[in-house]
C-alpha cells in the first residue's frame, strides 16, 4: 500500500496524458501538430519553464466541453488514488480557457462533476484553487476573479499564481489577493521556482500567501528560511518537475535534504505529472531512490502534506 498523502501542488491541465489528448482532439475536431502519442511524448524535452508552458498551453486546445474537463479530472483522481493520494488541492488556469472562448462555467462545472464524486468513487477529497497567469495583466486577473465569484466558498476555495515567473513579481497582483482575502479565500502563489528568493518574501508580505508553491530558491536567503520556519509556511516541492524544467540538475542534487534540515515544512507533489514523468507517489519513490530517504523521512513528508493542507484540523488528524 502506498503511503497515504495529500497532493497540494497539481495543475489539472498538467494531468492531460497524450492518449486522452488525442482522444479529445478526435472528439472535438481539433488537429494536433503531432502524428501520434509517441511523437507528442518526444516533444516533452524541456529546457526551462517557458519551453514547457508553450506546449502545456498549446495542448489545452483539446479541452472544450464540460465532459472533457470531467474526464480529465476523473482520470487524475483514479491515478492519484492508486498512488495513495487521499486529498488533493487542485490548481486550474481559468484564463488559459476563457482566452480560447471556453466559458468559465464549462471549466468549473466540468471539473466539479468529477471532483464531487471523488470521495465516493476514489476516496479522494478535493479543493479547487484558481490560478492567475502572472504573464497576463493584473486587470485580466481581476476580471477573472470577479467572474468566478459565484463559485467562491463552494467549488473554488483559494487563489494561486502561476505561469512565467521571472519579470512578473507578486506585487503586480496585490489587488486581486486583497479581494481574495476579503472574500475569505485561501491564498497561495508559485514563487522561487525560476524567480529569485525576493519573490517569495514579496508573496508573503504583499499577497499574504499561506503556502509557497515550489519555493526552492528560499535557500539563497537565510533570513527568509528562518522566517518560513518560524511562521510554519509550507513549501510545495515538485522534484520531478524541478529536474525536467532544469531547476535542479538531477534528483540526487535536489535540495530537499537541506530544506528538511533547515526545519522547513516541505511537501512532495507532482505539478504536471503527465509532462514530468510521474504522479505524487512516483515523486516520493524517485526521491527516496535518488536521495536514499529512509521510511521515517517519507512518513514525515506524508504527514507534512496533511499538515500543510487547507483541511479542517479534525479531518487532517483523521488522515494522518
Ligand atoms: N510553474 C509555473 N506555472 C506552471 C507550472 C509551474 O511549474 N505548471 C503549470 N503552470
Ligand atoms: Zn506548478
Q: What's this model, at a glance?
A:
With 320 residues, this protein is of the alpha/beta class.
Written overview of the protein:
This protein is α/β, with parallel strands linked by helices. The protein has one domain (about 5-310): Metal-dependent hydrolases (TIM Barrel). Helix content is about 50%, strand content about 15%. It contains 17 helices and eight strands. Strands 1-2-3-4-5-6-7-8 form an eight-stranded parallel beta sheet. The two termini are about 15 Å apart. The model has no long low-confidence stretch (mean pLDDT about 100). The structure holds hypoxanthine (HPA) and zinc ion. Zinc ion binds next to β1.
Classify the secondary structure makeup into a structural class: alpha/beta
- Molecular shape: globular
By DSSP, the count of extended strands is 8
CATH homology group: Metal-dependent hydrolases
Q: If classified by CATH, what would the architecture be?
A: Alpha-Beta Barrel
Helix fraction? 40-55%
Instruction: Tell me the series of helices and strands, N- to C-terminal.
Output: EHHHHEHHHEHEHEHEHEHHEHHHH
* CATH topology-level name: TIM Barrel
Radius of gyration, taken over Cα atoms and rounded to an integer in Å: 18 Å
Mean pLDDT score, rounded?
Answer: 98
First-residue to last-residue Cα separation: 15 Å
- Strand-residue fraction? 5-15%
